[in-house]
Amino acid sequence: MKKYNIGLIGAGFMAKAHSAAYATMPMFFWPVAAVPVRRTICDLSEEGARDAAARFGFEKHTTDWRDIVNDPEIDIIDIATPNDSHAEIAIAAANAGKHIFCEKPIARTTEEAKAMLDAVKAAGVTNMLAFNYRRTPAVALAKKFISEGSIGKILNFRGTYLQDWSADPNAPLSWRFQKKIAGSGTLGDIGTHVIDIARYLAGEIDEVCGTLDTHIPERPLQQGFADKLGTVKSGTHAKKGPVDVDDEVKFLLNFRSGASGSIEATRNGWGRNNYITFEVHGSEGSIFFNYERRDELQVYFASDPADKRGFRTIYTGPSHPNGDALWPIPALGIGYGETKIIECHDFIQAIATGQDVSPNFEDGYKIELICDAIKASSMDRKWVKTNC
C-alpha cells in the first residue's frame, strides 16, 4: 500500500491533534488511498523535539525545519507553528515539491497569503488549510441540505465563535496577543473559522461592515514558550506588556448571492468555552448548529404540515456525511479529534487521487482579503468591499 512520509513542524497543541489524526485515520477509513507515516517532527529545542517525537510517535526529530523540507524522503509538510513562520515554511516546501497542510489562519497578512498561494500554484502541489469545523458531520449535513435546496434560497447567515480563555486579564501575553507574530487577534484566530463556515454554506462574501475592539490592553508577560490558552495565570503584580491585536470582532456581511448575515467572535466571553454556532434562514426553512452539541443539527422545513412544523433535532450517525467511517450508531459522540481525522483523510485522498481539496490556500487568501476589509471597515466606520 502507498505511504506518505509526514514532516510535522511544531510540537504544541495542534501537533498533538494532527499526530493523533495521522495515527488513527486508517482505522476509521480503511482501506485508505495511502497510509500517513509519522517520519520527522521539529521543535525549537532539542529536548522539546526529542520529547515530541516520543510522545507523538515520530521516527526522527530535528530543531531546524529546513532539515524536513530538504529531506527527499518527506512527502508532506505539516505546518503547526505560530503564524509568523507559515509563509516562509510553506513557500520553501512548495519550492521543494512537497504537499502542504497548514494550520489556520494561512498567514499574518494578505501579502504573505498571496505569496503562499502563488508558490503552491507554481509548484502544482496539493495544499490544504486546517479549518476543521466544516468537517463536523452535522456541519457537512447542513451543507448537504442547503445544496439540495431543502431550505430554499439562502436569505441570512448568523454565526458566532465565543471563548473565554482570555477573559481573565491575568492570562499571559502569549504570541496570540502580539501582532508581529499572530497578525491579528480574535479575528484571525477564531473569527476566520466562522468566515470559513459562512463561505462553505452560503457562498462568497462581497462586502463587510464591522468593528474590532481590544478590551484588555495589556497582559502579564509569558514565561517560556508554552501556549496554554489562558490556563496558566500570572500574578497581579507581574510585569506586563501591551496587547496590540483585537480581542473581539463583530461585523455585518453581504454575500454575492444576495443573502446577508452577521458574525461575532470573542475570546473574552466568560462561560463560553468553544461556542461555535450558526443559523441559516432560507426561503423554505432554517438550520441551526451549536458546536458544543456537535452531534446535533436542528432543522425546520416550511414544507411540513402546519400542525407538524417546528425545529427537529437530527442526531448525526452512519447515514450522514462521513458517519459510516466513524461510529455505528447516531449520537455516540463526535469530538474535535474526529474532525481532524476526517480532515486528514480528505487531504491524503486528494494527494493520492490528484483531486482538489478545500479549504486550500486559495480559500485562505480570500479569507485574508475579507479580514483586511473588516479591519478597514472598523477603522473607517463604513462598508468595505472584500475584492474576493
Q: Could you give the topology of this structure?
A:
Layout: E1 3-9, H1 13-29, E2 35-42, H2 46-56, E3 60-62, H3 65-69, E4 76-79, H4 86-95, E5 99-102, H5 110-123, E6 127-129, H6 137-148, E7 154-162, H7 179-182, H8 186-202, E8 205-213, E9 218-220, E10 240-242, E11 248-255, E12 260-266, E13 275-282, E14 285-290, E15 296-301, E16 312-315, H9 323-326, H10 336-353, H11 361-380, E17 384-385
Parallel strand pairs: 1-2, 1-4, 2-3, 4-5, 5-6, 7-12
Antiparallel strand pairs: 7-13, 8-11, 8-17, 9-10, 11-12, 13-14, 14-15, 15-16
Helix pairs in contact: 1-10, 4-5, 5-11, 6-8, 8-11
Keyword list:
Gfo/Idh/MocA-like_OxRdtase_N, 9-stranded mixed β-sheet, Dihydrodipicolinate Reductase, domain 2, oxidoreductase, 11 helices, 6-stranded parallel β-sheet, 2 domains, Rossmann fold, alpha/beta, 388 residues
